[in-house]
């Protein structure tokens, strides 16, 4: 991750982000709907759409919001799919259009606001970058992953490194997990060695989980090269 951190802090970032940025509470994690104890790692999350809040959920409660017809309610279950499109290539010009001052960002569609939101990690947490619809359409709008993106609960996660940009469709909660890690580890102007090592480990884990969606090819993407 490189470059100065600018832009405005995303004050409306999900309150669920606190579990990734602060000390662990002494009591066990519990489902925020029914109160049952859930595993600290590996439990499901819901998005409370009106407040952009991440909510811990047990398996039974999460399944209630995985059913057809629940996509427009107060809560939406965060899916567990990781996708990548080897045919999509973003060059330096595309990244410059996004005007992201660091090498990592994620993008999701806020259904309540009916607009796209671009966020990136910073020492202050999740920082929002203004993103107009025309820029989005030029850079990512025609990509296979953008067409598959579920509002509020999934994000396109981008990382620019060593002259290439990787793009994955991931659950929204892991993006805020990444923000929390970077906030805790960030040192100095560019994040520091520990933060960069954590970033490498995070994306290596994502790379192990991603799959190519049906219908994708290894050919040229929206901004192919």
Structural features, described:
- The protein is of the alpha+beta class.
- The protein has two domains: 24-77, no CATH class; 81-209, no CATH class.
- It has helices spanning 18-21, 59-64, 92-98, 133-141, 144-148, 172-185, 192-209, and strands at residues 8-9, 44-48, 53-57, 75-77, 83-84, 104-110, 115-122, 125-129, 154-161, 164-171.
- Helix 3 (92-98) packs antiparallel against helix 4 (133-141) and helix 6 (172-185) packs antiparallel against helix 7.
- The radius of gyration is 17 Å and the shape is globular.
- The two termini are 23 Å apart.
Set out the fold topology:
Layout: E1 8-9, H1 18-21, E2 44-48, E3 53-57, H2 59-64, E4 75-77, E5 83-84, H3 92-98, E6 104-110, E7 115-122, E8 125-129, H4 133-141, H5 144-148, E9 154-161, E10 164-171, H6 172-185, H7 192-209
Antiparallel strand pairs: 1-8, 2-3, 2-4, 5-10, 6-7, 6-9, 7-8, 9-10
Helix pairs in contact: 3-4, 6-7
Short descriptors:
alpha+beta, globular, 225 residues, 2 domains, 10 strands, disordered N terminus, single chain, 28% helix, 7 helices
The helicity comes to: 25-40%
Poorly predicted regions are 1-13, 218-225
Radius of gyration: 17 Å
Instruction: Please provide the count of β strands.
Output: 10
**Largest sheet, described in full?**
7 strands, antiparallel
Structural class: alpha+beta
Strand fraction band?
15-25%
Q: For the terminal residues, how far apart are their CA atoms?
A: 23 Å
Averaged pLDDT, please?
Answer: 80
**Assembly type:** single chain
What order do the SSEs take from the amino end to the carboxyl end, as H and E?
EHEEHEEHEEEHHEEHH
Strand order of the largest sheet: 1-8-7-6-9-10-5
**Total helix count?**
7
What is the general shape? globular
What's the number of domains? 2
